[in-house]
Design goal:
Elements lengths: L25 E8 L8 E7 L8 E2 L5 E3 L19 E4 L8 E2 L3 E5 L22 E3 L4 E5 L5 E4 L24 H5 L6 E6 L5 E7 L13 E2 L4 E2 L11 E5 L10 E5 L11 H12 L18 E11 L2 E22 L6 E12 L3 E7 L5 E11 L4 E3 L3 E5 L5 E4 L7 E6 L5 E6 L4 E6 L5 E6 L6 E8 L4 E8 L1
Parallel strand pairs: 7-9
Antiparallel strand pairs: 1-2, 1-15, 2-7, 3-6, 4-5, 4-11, 5-10, 8-9, 11-12, 13-14, 15-16, 17-18, 18-19, 18-20, 18-21, 21-22, 21-23, 24-25, 25-28, 26-27, 26-29, 29-30
């Protein structure tokens, strides 16, 4: 994780200035990287909600991802860094309902960074798209069938995003052809399916050291975009910290060694993403260059571990102001949260205070935990999310998982005596016996409704549990 950026006190605000503004949901640029060498580049997008829909999902089919299209210009009308064409998300059901708060990493598979541990390869050694973190992190190689490429426009003479629907061919790894990021001055942006600008910024300056002077406007706030970085862009990463993503002051830069594809950029970026996922992010404040919100509680840490089939959670505060209580919440998908218990806070404190809670009956598979902190005036904030794996099925896993199709495979290194699949209520759905030897078992789950399930593997002296998600 990149270095933490210390939160500053939030400016005095009044929402009266934003009456009537409805910030639209879509995808913003959370991080871009030129990579440590060559064209080892990636773009990390963050799905955001709006003033009218803070939670739920967003339909990203046909949304556009592009570099400079000519709308980012220097004085005199020069527009560097234009690569012909653009990317679009495919008309695929996987993209019809992407959860608000999800991170999407699109990377150049033609020149992969050997340090990228998130890559998954098929039997032929080719990168494949996969979804992790309970459906909140998407990793897409440039060759993914979830992407399409238009090779014509924009170009040096046209900023158009016109295309014929349903005729865009697969990308075929031509990253540099459509979106390659120029070291001496370029831009990165997202656009709605109709081609209108949604989010993005310029970065770097050409060799003449003249910054961009013309930027497209953010329609919601009536403000122009900005320079995310004005130095030499080679081997550079530019990332959002926190606050309003319509202001360049909320973005920072570092060397490519500090890139964090698929993860939060800073400690404050973690808080921002978690507030977006939980639906408490205040979109009505986006029109002002607010700093990172100062939390009423300074949380030193929040962590947990599995011990004797129980989840032990620990946290501590360095200071507390008007702190009424903490509520421990648990989720299996980071969408629906259940309260487990509430512990009283210490009101006002300038000394270290420690807390702990034991979840004696954890869910099978991966569970997510967070703290809801409540002030005495009713205001609430949320901690970062802790994931705990309750899985004692040694060397067994399901793939793909989550499942978007009708089948998945169970890989086992030792054959269980039997296996059973249960829904979230504990109802048995599938029972198989007389399994022979290690190997692969093909499962037909076409009859399962979308949701969370868990599989139990019964061995001679133990029972293993695996989560299964059907999208």
């Amino acid at each position: 994780m990149k270095r933490a950026v210390l939160p500053a006190a939030i400016a005095a605000l009044t929402t009266i200035f934003f009456t009537g503004i409805s910030f639209a949901q879509g995808i913003i640029v959370n991080e871009i990287s030129q990579g440590p060498a060559g064209a080892q580049e990636f773009i990390e997008l963050l799905v955001v909600g709006s003033t009218t829909q803070a939670t739920g999902t967003v339909d990203l089919r046909d949304w556009i991802i592009d570099d400079n299209n000519g709308d980012f210009q220097l004085a005199g009308g020069v527009a560097p860094g234009i690569a012909n064409g653009h990317f679009r998300f495919a008309l695929n059901d996987t993209l019809a309902a992407v959860p608000i708060g999800a991170l999407i990493v699109i990377y150049n598979v033609a020149d992969p960074n050997p340090a990228w541990t998130f890559r998954q390869l098929n039997g032929s050694g080719q990168d494949i798209m996969h979804i992790e973190n309970g459906g909140y992190t998407y990793y897409m190689p440039g060759t993914s069938t979830l992407l399409r490429a238009c090779s014509g426009t924009p170009n040096a003479t046209s900023t158009s995003y016109a295309y014929t629907a349903n005729t865009i061919p697969p990308l075929a790894a031509n990253w540099t052809g459509q979106i390659g990021l120029a070291n001496n001055g370029d831009a990165i942006q997202t656009r709605r399916p109709d081609g209108t600008f949604f989010h993005g910024f310029g970065f770097s300056t050409p060799a003449i050291s003249n910054p961009f002077t013309v930027f497209p406007n953010f329609a919601e706030v009536g403000l122009p975009s900005f320079n995310g970085y004005t130095g030499t862009a080679a081997n550079t990463v530019v990332y959002l910290d926190c606050g309003s993503y319509y202001y360049g002051s909320r973005f920072a830069n570092a060397t490519a060694a500090n890139e964090t594809p698929g993860a939060a950029n800073t400690t404050d970026n973690t808080t921002l993403i978690n507030s977006i996922r939980s639906g408490v992010f205040q979109y009505s404040l986006l029109g002002t260059d607010v700093s990172c919100q100062a939390l009423p509680v300074s949380l030193l840490y929040f962590n947990g571990h599995l011990e004797e089939e129980k989840v032990q959670l620990h946290w501590a505060t360095a200071s507390e102001t008007n702190n009424l209580q903490f509520t421990v919440q648990r989720s299996t998908d980071q969408k629906s949260w259940n309260d487990l218990c509430s512990l009283p806070g210490n009101g006002f404190s300038r000394e270290k205070k420690t807390y702990r809670y034991t979840d004696a009956t954890p869910m099978p598979g991966t569970s997510f935990y967070r703290l809801e902190q409540e002030d005495r005036d009713g205001a609430k904030t949320y901690s970062a999310v802790v994931a705990i794996q309750n899985n004692n099925a040694d060397d067994a896993y399901l793939y793909p998982n989550p499942v978007t199709g009708s089948r998945c495979k169970l890989f086992v290194s030792a054959s269980p005596l039997k296996l059973a699949l249960y829904d979230i209520t504990g109802k048995e759905i599938i029972l198989k016996t007389a399994l022979t030897g290690p190997g692969i078992l093909d499962l037909d789950i076409s009859f399962l409704r979308p949701g969370m399930y868990y599989m139990k593997l019964y061995y001679n002296n133990k029972v293993g549990t695996l989560p299964l998600v059907r999208n």
